[in-house]
Design goal:
Elements (H helix, E strand, L loop, with lengths): L1 E6 L6 E7 L2 E5 L1 E6 L9 H7 L3 E5 H6 L3 H6 L3 H5 L4 E5 L2 H9 L7 E3 L4 E4 L6 E4 L1 H11 L3 E3 L11 H28 L8 E6 L5 H14 L3 E4 L12 H10 L5 E4 L5 H10 L3 E4 L1 H7 L2 E5 L11 H6 L2 H9 L11 E5 L19 H5 L2 H9 L3 H27 L4
Parallel strand pairs: 4-5, 4-14, 5-6, 6-10, 10-11, 11-12, 12-13, 13-14
Antiparallel strand pairs: 1-2, 2-3, 7-8, 8-9, 15-16
Length: 407
Amino acid sequence: MFKVIKKSKISKARLGVIETKKGRIETPFFMPDATRGVVKNLSNRDLSDLGLKCFVANTLHLFLRPGIKLIKSAGGLHSFMDWQGSILSDSGGYQVFSLIHKNKGENSGEITDKCAIFKSPLDGSILKLTPEQSIKIQFDLGVEMMVCFDDCPPNSYNDADLEIAVARTIKWAKRCSVEYNKQIKLRGLLKNSPLLMAVIQGGNNLPLRKRCAESLVKIGFDGFGFGARHVDETGKFLAEALTLTADEIPENKLRFGLGIGRPEDIVRSIKMGWDMFDCVIPTREGRHGRLFLFNCHAGANPGLEPGEAIASQDSIGLRQLADPSRMTEKFNFYETINITNAKFIKDFSPINAQSNLPELRSYSKAYLHYLFKINESLGSRLASLNNLEFYLKLLSEARGLIRRNKL
């Protein structure tokens, strides 16, 4: 169940609460990707210490390995991972269509109205995945939130191909809804059912986005996601498409910004009314030695707290929302550093003096630099911890700003 509890007075941002069988999640919130049933380099104890409520698991990858039969025999994904929080499973659609779309002309598979046919990235065998199978797999995983199987084409597709993908996405959403209701009855989950979300496609074609949204809303789901990339091929933030899509989603439904990941893009999207986000950036960048840190000297106001640093740029953010052409203006409430840079060899300051984690307050940047130089896995773990804490803190600060009508 999802409920909006407050709306900002200066933007479309809102606070909400999701109630699942695993507990309460305040929105807006961020989820790291546990693609193969693990947030890379981090243990459940690490995630618990960070206060993480939910992560995203990948339906396709778990289907391929270790396989749904094994996960079911363990009692579901929660038991298999010994995870006490909530889990959102994506449909596997994005991964399936990436395999097909990125390798066109190489006999890599095809998409029909009936199913997606593709080669296994593990052994090259031919596999089929239907909307019904995707839903069944997600029920077998035992998650709290699941996503409809959809046709997820690149934004660069022409309008004719995008229109085909939108029509197929709507058809598949109907099939997912039917299978979802069937599984709810078969598994006796009428009083404790997972949330089901549909994905709105259409690329950067606004009329198609609107048509897709209207059709999916008529079918009826617990939430709706922004399908495909939120940036174009040049990296430009698709502000108009994101704004229109959010506006088409009913206020009492969850709005899921799939894959929205850069801190500034998350802030922009929150102001548009989006509620939940996931991305590989914090842990992936951490594994490469890139650290995210709040810049509490934003603008001309030194010594700001993170939330104040974010809010101090609110005027820029609002101008950008009003005029998408100004989306190139930079947000400077945070900075990134590359810990492998030679300048950190003798930097004995803490990795993050403001962290709530003792390890990040006690280990020095010089030591972290050294760990990366010798390819010690502890380095990747510490950097990933830092980045995930940054993201969770960012969303916590955003919620506080919305409460105070400053975002």
